[in-house]
Amino acid sequence: MDVVRSNLDGAKVAFYGMIQYANLVGVAIGYTIASSISMKAIRRARCFHTHGHAKPCSSSSIPYMIVFGTVQIIFSQISDFNQISWLSIVVVIMSFTYSSIGLSLSIAQTISNGGKGSLTGISIGASVTSTQKVWHSLQAFDDIAFAYSFSNILIEIQDTIKAPPPSKSKVMQKATRLSVVTTTIFYMLCGCMGYVAFGDTVSDNLLMGFGFYEPF
Predict the structure, then answer these.
(1) What residue ranges do the domains of the chain occupy?
(2) What's the start-to-end Cα distance of the chain, in Å?
(3) Which of 5, 19, 39, 49 lies most in the core, judged by the most C-beta atoms within 10 Å?
(4) What digits encode the pLDDT tens for the residues 33-43?
């Protein structure tokens, strides 16, 4: 809100402030859902490893949403939480690691079984209607937008740069360009290679949705 107020005044501050907070709530909900799916997938993989792949190993995501939401509330009480530099390093390493694992497994699967899928995506037929394909395409755009939700923390990132104010914007421009290019390359490779590896049966969870339960 301080950033909005420094550039605008009057009713515009309230208007853009509402948009800003609505976007923040939406991103928080998105991360809560994504985290619960990830935790559920880890439990499912553990279940398959223990009981075999014949067991359904199904569970609800709601308890994980509650756990993650509670942890968010607790962490949000820590003062200057966004200033913890080692936490950012851990996040970067973790993101590159799981993206690299998913990409490597997809490439290996493609080499062993040959490429699948088509340039137009999932084929319309008995299993997928044209309406469902349109809906899935819109969901894909939503996933892409969610992957670039870092704009909410650009101001906090800029605040940590040890440079005089005039050069901060130049540093941020370079950092943003580099991060967007790197993120795009990694996520596009993961998405495309995952589809090439498994075709129309590909799951929305690259690491846990199909075939990658072993090695545990």
Answers:
(1) 1-77, 82-216
(2) 46
(3) 39
(4) 888 988 888 88
